[in-house]
Design goal:
The protein is α+β, with helices and mostly antiparallel strands. It is globular. It has helices at residues 2-21, 142-153; strands at 81-90, 93-104, 107-112, 118-121, 127-133, 136-140, 170-175, 182-187. The longest helix is centred in the N-terminal third of the chain and has 20 residues, at 2-21. Helix content is 17%, strand content 29%. Strands 1, 2, 3, 4, 5, 6, 7 and 8 form an eight-stranded mixed beta sheet that branches.
Length: 191
């Protein structure tokens, strides 16, 4: 009787693990309105199989066996820009790299492109939010945003209080007409 329970328990565990592994199937990632959504970690696309897809942007490579097969890179909506903050000198300025999607084992993740960082002003009335997990955010003031950026850049996680954490210093932003001032800044959650 005891060995029967072990067999049944083992089968249940294998089934549960198998279901979890197949949860990230090849379906297209669609927003609620049916259009492709811009996310920091987009789901794989059905159309990409085999070969090196380096011409599609980012670091998309496929060994032919499906490893790191992210499909087509996500496209940001007009007016949205992804940046990776690299330097934060004071409360009103950040220096950031243009962030591009890179194919990783966790699908598409945005990272700085390694080019020359650009300085952006952070106005006192910036609309900022920090990630509290997958898909959820907390609105913060410029002062709270500044403290968060500083702590994450210094890897001083003792200054980051739950439910916040650091996610690679990548932010989705909108800029003013000149392109030198950030109007909205939303931390991108990633694993």
């Amino acid at each position: 009787m005891r060995s029967t329970r072990h067999v049944i328990g083992t089968l249940a565990l294998i089934t549960a693990l198998g279901a979890g592994l197949t949860a990230c199937g090849p379906e297209e990632d669609k927003a609620s309105d049916g259009s492709a959504g811009a996310t920091a970690a987009a789901k794989p696309s059905q159309g990409a199989k085999g070969g090196d897809h380096a011409g599609h942007g980012g670091d998309h490579k496929d060994s032919g066996d499906g490893e790191n097969d992210c499909g087509k890179p996500p496209t940001l909506p007009a007016g949205i820009k992804m940046i990776e903050v690299g330097l934060h000198r004071d409360i009103s300025v950040v220096e950031a790299f243009n962030a591009v999607p890179k194919c990783t084992p966790n699908d598409w993740i945005y990272h700085g492109d390694g080019g020359t960082p650009k300085g952006y002003k952070l106005p006192a009335d910036i609309k900022a939010e920090l990630s509290t997990g997958s898909g959820s955010h907390k609105k913060v003031t410029r002062e709270e945003l500044s403290k968060h950026i500083d702590a994450c850049l210094r890897n001083d996680y003792s200054q980051i209080k739950e439910p916040l954490s650091c996610h690679g210093n990548v932010y989705e932003v909108t800029l003013n007409a000149k392109g030198d001032e950030i109007r909205t800044m939303s931390e991108r959650w990633s694993v």
